[in-house]
Amino acid sequence: MTDNARARKLADRIQVVVAETLDRRIKDPRLGFVTITDARVTGDLREATVFYTVYGDDEERAASAAALESAKGVLRSEVGRQTGVRFTPSLAFVPDALPDNARTIEDLLDKARAKDAEVRQVSTGATYAGDADPYRKPGDEDDEADIPGSTDKNEGPASA
Fold this sequence. Notes:
By secondary structure, the chain is an alpha+beta fold.
């Protein structure tokens, strides 16, 4: 087992190497606007997972995934050449779910804003069900006489 710092450094280097190689060497027409978002390496440095996003629709995503799979050998060779590790990790490309999660969060926030606007619309012009301030204040002496079990302030404690 290696330490996590070494695995993280290797993952960062793999991310850079794969992104640069895709930009400069891979000329596959199926490859769309691909962004390498993250890379993770297992503790034994034998397998690397590369996360990517593709700008476009589902058809462009599928074409880019096929292009990445076909370029996997060239990318692994380049990673091995530039990192200099004894065993070049095998690469697995996984579409990053971050944009989908962000889109879901944005949809939920839009729904919350719509509900807030609806509540604001309903509450305009509404009046209180009771008084404007339903709480008793210390100066309200007439209200204390209405409460059963309360004593008058002028009376002292009952003597036995």
